[in-house]
């Protein structure tokens, strides 16, 4: 199975988008069912996951970003301070028509400059059950998740969300 791994930064206060080529992909690695892939996988981050700005009260809470709509939902003792909440957007390029598998972790811990932590869970994409690269060798998808923040833990939380893409 051909595998490509890219670490996606989850920056929560508007850093510019990043783009990177997968350097772990080997052109001659086997791709599902004995077929050799002609084109290595390439991953470009178009938009980083951004939860916007919130204030956290004594009970803590959770911010959820829907991958399809980008809508932000607040639960618990949180106050919306505005800012743009964005679902992450990733473009995968490779062998036209090839089936791929996208893997996101179950959770990711983020840290603030003051050493506090917050956890992103429930990472999901807007992909179908069996995603394929288009006839142009391209597939774009969005992802979102839930940021869990403990009581009174303010800060600018940052971290990396590993996104793994494999040929099937």
Automatic annotation (TrEMBL):
InterPro entries for the chain: DUF4402
Domain of life: Bacteria
Signal peptide: 1-20
Keyword tags: Signal
Signal in keyword set: yes
Protein name in UniProt: Resolvase
């Amino acid at each position: 199975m051909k595998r490509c791994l890219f670490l996606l930064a989850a920056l929560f206060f508007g850093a510019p988008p990043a783009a990177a080529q997968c350097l772990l992909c080997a052109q001659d690695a086997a791709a599902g069912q004995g077929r050799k892939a002609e084109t290595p996988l390439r991953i470009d981050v178009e938009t980083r996951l951004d939860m916007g700005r919130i204030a956290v009260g004594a009970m803590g809470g959770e911010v959820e970003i829907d991958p399809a709509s980008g809508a932000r939902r607040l639960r618990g003792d949180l106050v919306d301070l505005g800012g743009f909440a964005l679902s992450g957007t990733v473009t995968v390029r490779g062998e036209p028509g090839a089936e791929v598998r996208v893997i996101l972790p179950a959770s990711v811990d983020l840290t603030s400059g003051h050493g506090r932590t917050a956890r992103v869970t429930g990472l999901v994409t807007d992909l179908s059950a069996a995603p394929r690269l288009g006839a142009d060798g391209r597939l774009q998808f969005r992802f979102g998740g839930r940021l869990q923040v403990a009581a009174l833990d303010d800060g600018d939380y940052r971290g990396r969300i590993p996104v793994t893409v494999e040929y099937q």
